[in-house]
């Protein structure tokens, strides 16, 4: 297992040197952020990022994310061209020594919360998702943009996207995902990369848009779309775990045994009776997920992929990108490294 830490490139307020000082960290997971979604990343940008990261004494083997253009998810517009660009990026990443690429197939919105700075009883702040608030949010008329997303849209673009998705139901989304995978998996097999899809967060349709990477049945279906080890998962414990029907400990054991988990995002969430959730500290007693059992499942199945602490709370007066401060994620990483060592 290699413990890595998400870093948002040179614009990230957290310097690589600070990340290097967390004892258990092997490397960072990052992305090229200044290329419009759909265009290919240049070899120069990839190499430059790798050079900066390695100069700080860290490894760079995982990308999160190469975003998938909406035309690919919709199967329309410039879909074919964007798939070709995606393949070009993958080939370049393979040449630069990248081993795992995380991506998602969520229509329009990546992770969604109703509040980014909910004060918890201990004075820290965390990301939360309350169902009643989510039900009353209207992305077409109200304000909705969350820091951390790889893309945000102008109002006119949003209207056009919602209109386009009104013709795409879950089955159509499955078929577009299948087409995308059949195109890219042979390329990554040659490039030595493993693809790792991120589950939908939260794992249910939102704002009337379809979401399919949500539960065991669908993860099984996903893995069969292209039955290759290179077609794998980012097992995001917090995303899948915010639906109480997903038994994350059993599922991570199952998919890790199948050698289809290449990257694990580990965080804890506190589930509320109506299906709402609050993100909590990684420490098992703080949330609803047994983090030590998650790590045990990985350990016992010989997991040799990458793990990163996922969203942290804001603690000790830190300000910054919600979910992506230094302190609480560092605590989470060390907590997990401690469990791993003890196991
Ligand atoms: C949230 C992240 C996601 C993830 C993408 C992967 O904090 O886990 O934004 O990076 O869904 O494409």
Describe it.
The protein is 38% helix and 17% strand. With 343 residues, the chain is an alpha/beta fold. It has a single domain (2-342), classed as Alpha-Beta Barrel (TIM Barrel). Helix 8 links the parallel strand 7 and strand 8 (231-236). The protein is globular and about 50 Å long. Residues 64-65, 102-104, 110-111, 148, 198, 265, 311, 323 line the site of D-mannose (DNO).
Q: Strands across the major sheet, in which order?
A: 1-2-3-4-7-8-9-12
**pLDDT averaged residue by residue:** 95
- Name the CATH class: Alpha Beta
CATH topology: TIM Barrel
Identify the CATH architecture. Answer: Alpha-Beta Barrel
Strand count = 12
Task: Give a quick rundown of the structure.
The chain has helices at residues 16-20, 43-55, 70-74, 79-95, 131-136, 155-165, 170-191, 216-225, 237-241, 248-257, 291-300, 327-342, and strands at residues 2-6, 27-30, 59-64, 100-104, 115-119, 125-129, 194-198, 231-236, 261-266, 268-271, 277-280, 306-309. By secondary structure, it is an alpha/beta fold.
